[in-house]
């Protein structure tokens, strides 16, 4: 006989550290998952971040996110990265290349509004653009959609190409004080993170979920019933899956693959 009582999990008795909840080694504790390295020298940390940023762009290139000269990802190296001053202009340090004006307005507004954020990722991926036209959030349909439970904003407006500081500030306001992902209506996606790796992994995950949502909506329009995850179950999963270190770890297989495929060319 099948019980009608729905089983729900609890964090009671589990490790308080979301990273240690998601991964375990041996009983002796000698097998540990490597997380974000710690640096004594901020310049060493900066070089490490630049390497992961170059890898992130290459990853987006592999996913087909490139679109014209403003988002030409596939050949990026560390030496192509530009340092931008608070005035919005290229500084004499770093690559001496022009920057995208819209990118500055969006990213600078977010970093001003959210000093807790170390990386912001934005581009115009196909699936993200397609779902963005509805100006709606995605449903929590699958386990990996729990990345976005109570973590997804919608900027339900399109004011044209972002060439004014105010539009960047509007996007930052839509994200609010804690959400790390946003659907920009008629535009694309935006994700934030404690590391470049987290922001980029979240972006790719949100783009995939936009594709899933479009597929599910097409099936539902033909009579199939859509089942959405219960908020309580989504919240339980989110408390582990959304942890910034778990997000960082999720990107490391892609980073290692890029190292192999390019023989480390993006680190130059």
From TrEMBL:
GO terms for cellular component: cytoskeleton. Gene3D superfamilies: Class II aldolase/adducin N-terminal domain (3.40.225.10). Residues 51-214 form the Class II aldolase/adducin N-terminal domain. Signal peptide: none annotated. GO terms for molecular function: actin filament binding. InterPro entries: Aldolase-II_Adducin_sf (IPR051017), Aldolase_II/adducin_N (IPR001303), Aldolase_II/adducin_N_sf (IPR036409). This is Class II aldolase/adducin N-terminal.
């Amino acid at each position: 006989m099948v019980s009608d009582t729905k089983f729900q999990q609890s964090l009671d008795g589990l490790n308080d550290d979301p990273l240690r909840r998601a991964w375990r080694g041996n009983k002796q504790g000698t097998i540990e998952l490597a997380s974000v390295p710690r640096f004594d020298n901020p310049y060493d940390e900066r070089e490490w971040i630049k390497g992961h940023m170059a890898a992130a762009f290459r990853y987006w290139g592999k996913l087909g996110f490139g679109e014209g000269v403003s988002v030409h990802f596939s050949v990026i190296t560390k030496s192509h990265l530009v340092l931008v001053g608070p005035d919005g202009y290229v500084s004499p340090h770093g690559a001496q290349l022009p920057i995208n004006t819209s990118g500055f307005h969006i990213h600078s507004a977010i970093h001003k509004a959210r000093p807790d954020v170390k990386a912001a990722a934005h581009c115009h991926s196909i699936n993200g653009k397609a779902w963005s036209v509805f100006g709606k959030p995605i449903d929590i349909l699958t386990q990996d959609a729990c990345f976005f439970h109570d973590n997804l904003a919608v900027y339900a407006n399109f004011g044209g190409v972002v060439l004014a500081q105010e539009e960047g500030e509007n996007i930052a306001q839509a994200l609010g004080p804690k959400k790390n992902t946003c659907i920009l209506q008629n535009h694309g996606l935006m994700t934030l993170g404690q590391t470049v790796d987290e922001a980029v992994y979240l972006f790719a995950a949100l783009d995939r979920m936009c594709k899933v949502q479009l597929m599910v909506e097409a099936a539902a329009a033909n009579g199939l019933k859509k089942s959405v995850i219960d908020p309580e179950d989504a919240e339980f999963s989110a408390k582990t899956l959304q942890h910034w270190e778990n997000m960082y770890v999720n990107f490391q297989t892609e980073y290692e693959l890029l190292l192999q495929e390019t023989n480390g060319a993006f680190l130059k």
